[in-house]
Design a protein that fits this description.
Elements lengths: L3 H52 L32 H11 L7 E2 H7 L6 H16 L3 E5 L2 E4 L6
Antiparallel strand pairs: 1-3, 2-3
Length: 156
C-alpha cells in the first residue's frame, strides 16, 4: 500500500506542473492582451487624428512642399509649378531643353550628349521615354517626331 506522504508528494508534483503550465498560459495571454490593447490605442488615436483633420476648413489645408525623389512620378504641370518638383533626372532634361542648344529642339541622341551620357540605344531610349513623359505632363513639347524642346511660357 502506498504511503500517505508518497501520495501527497505525487499529488503536489502534479499540481505544481499544472500551476507552471497555467502560469505560462497566463503570460502568453497577457502578452497577447498587451499587443491587442496597443493596436486598439493606435486605431483610436488614428480615428481621432482623422476626425480633427476632417473637421478643419478646407482653406486651412496647405499644399505640402515636396522635394523630388529619383524615380518619382512626373506630376502634371500646373500654373506656377516649379521645375524643382521633378526628379533630378527630369530637372536635368528640362534644363538642357531650356538651354540655347534646346531652343530649336533636340533629338534624343543630342540630348544624351548634352547630358554627358553615352549615345547608346539603351540610354537614348530611356531619354526618349522620359522626354515623352515630360511632353504628356506639360513640361516639354515635341516639335516634330523625335525632336523635343522646353515648354515655352506664354508671353503677355
Amino acid at each position: 500500500m502506498p504511503s500517505v506522504l508518497g501520495l501527497l508528494e505525487a499529488r503536489e508534483k502534479k499540481v505544481r506542473e499544472e500551476v507552471a503550465r497555467l502560469q505560462e498560459e497566463a503570460e502568453r495571454v497577457q502578452a497577447a492582451l498587451g499587443e491587442a490593447e496597443r493596436a486598439l490605442q493606435r486605431l483610436v488615436d488614428a480615428r481621432a487624428t482623422v476626425t480633427e483633420v476632417l473637421a478643419e476648413p478646407p482653406a486651412a489645408v496647405a499644399e505640402p512642399v515636396r522635394s523630388a525623389v529619383t524615380g518619382s512620378v512626373v506630376p502634371h504641370r500646373t500654373e506656377g509649378m516649379a521645375v524643382s518638383v521633378l526628379a533630378p533626372d527630369y530637372q536635368r532634361i528640362v534644363s538642357v531643353l531650356e538651354s540655347e542648344a534646346g531652343v530649336e529642339g533636340m533629338r534624343c541622341q543630342q540630348l544624351a550628349a548634352a547630358l554627358g551620357l553615352q549615345a547608346v540605344p539603351a540610354k537614348v531610349e530611356g531619354l526618349r521615354s522620359k522626354a515623352k513623359r515630360l511632353v504628356e505632363r506639360g513640361w516639354a513639347v515635341q516639335v516634330r517626331p523625335g525632336v523635343f524642346t522646353a515648354l515655352v511660357a506664354p508671353s503677355g
